[in-house]
């Protein structure tokens, strides 16, 4: 059975390993100050949020998300990062985490939950196509600074 919920101080090292795995998947390595900042933000629960998924008491998945205002609706929830340990994939962890974020956002009056993924991330997209609508938007970025 998958249990989702808040991360605890005791989850820090496992969360860091899972977050490192997520970033490795996207070809990046985070500087320690960004990892520390994220953890502090999750602990304060004001701007950024995190949930974990546990199988048999072991943390095997994480999700990070935030809310922001919208010009056309109530606030919206952006699901920024989602990662499941390779040993737990295919067991419903990702789905459970997405559902937990949707429940969290619904309870706070958000109009929707949305996220991005790379077009080549076919494994994740199989799940996403089952639980959400593909709105066919492209993402553009202007990198600022270093």
UniProtKB/TrEMBL annotation:
Residues in N-acetyltransferase domain copies: 2-146
Keywords: Acyltransferase, Transferase
InterPro entries: Acyl_CoA_acyltransferase, Bact_Acetyltransf, GNAT_dom
Domain of life where this protein originates: Bacteria
Listed GO MF terms: acyltransferase activity, transferring groups other than amino-acyl groups
Official protein name in the record: GNAT family N-acetyltransferase
């Amino acid at each position: 059975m998958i249990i989702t919920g808040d991360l605890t101080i005791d989850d820090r090292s496992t969360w860091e390993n899972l977050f490192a795995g997520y970033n490795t998947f996207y070809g990046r390595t985070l500087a320690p100050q960004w990892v520390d900042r994220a953890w502090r933000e999750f602990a304060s629960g004001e701007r950024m949020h995190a949930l974990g998924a546990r199988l048999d008491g072991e943390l095997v998945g994480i999700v990070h998300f935030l809310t922001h205002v919208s010009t056309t609706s109530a606030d919206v929830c952006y699901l920024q990062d989602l990662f499941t340990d390779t040993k737990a994939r295919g067991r419903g962890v990702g789905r459970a985490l997405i559902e937990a974020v949707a429940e969290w956002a619904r309870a706070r009056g958000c109009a929707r939950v949305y996220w991005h993924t790379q077009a080549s991330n076919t494994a994740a997209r199989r799940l996403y196509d089952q639980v959400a609508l593909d709105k066919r938007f492209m993402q553009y970025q202007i990198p600022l600074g270093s």
